[in-house]
Amino acid sequence: MKISDILTEQTILTGLDGRTKDDIINTLVDLIGELPRVIDKEKVRTAIFDREKIMSTGVGNGFAIPHGKTDAVSDVVAAFAVTAKPVDYQSLDEKPVRLVFLLVGKDSMVGPHIKLLSRISRLMNKEEFREKLLRAPTSHDVLEAFRHEEENYLEM
Predict the structure, then answer these.
(1) What domains lie within the chain, and their CATH numbers?
(2) pTM
């Protein structure tokens, strides 16, 4: 499964004006909450925040990947945001975050969930790609950047 297959222009935000980690997560959960694959938006929210309590999903290099598994979705759903300003996310490297990828998987689909987390992490480890996302003015441009990066650099 490709990242560009689970993201849409409607689930990507650029210039997100979130001031806190909770603001950003809540905005992204609200964004996916209307998707047909989301059965219960509040259960999704709970799954994400429960996972966040275990350990911050701010993984470093200005990137966070809040994620969770729940029976409140019928299939994998995702959202992505570029924040307008750096946000304190209690990241592992203690640096603020501007790129946030929300991933929610179905409880019974552990394998695909882990593969997607790995794929997202590999892409986001590339500084040039992160810079491209930070400069992308629209959700269309962000989605195209993901498509291009997956076509050229990832084994499918």
Answers:
(1) 3-150 (3.40.930.10)
(2) 0.94
Alpha helix stretches (DSSP H) within 10-109: 21-32, 41-54
CA 86 to chain centre: 16
Question: Among all residues, which ones are annotated catalytic?
Answer: 67
The Cα 14–Cα 81 span in angstroms is 6
Residues 6+ apart with CB under 8 A from 156: 2, 150
Work out the pLDDT band at 152, boundaries 50, 70, 90: confident
Q: What is the pLDDT of residues 13-23, one digit of tens each?
A: 999 999 999 99
Contacts of 62 (CB under 8 A, 6+ apart): 86, 95, 96, 97, 98, 99, 130
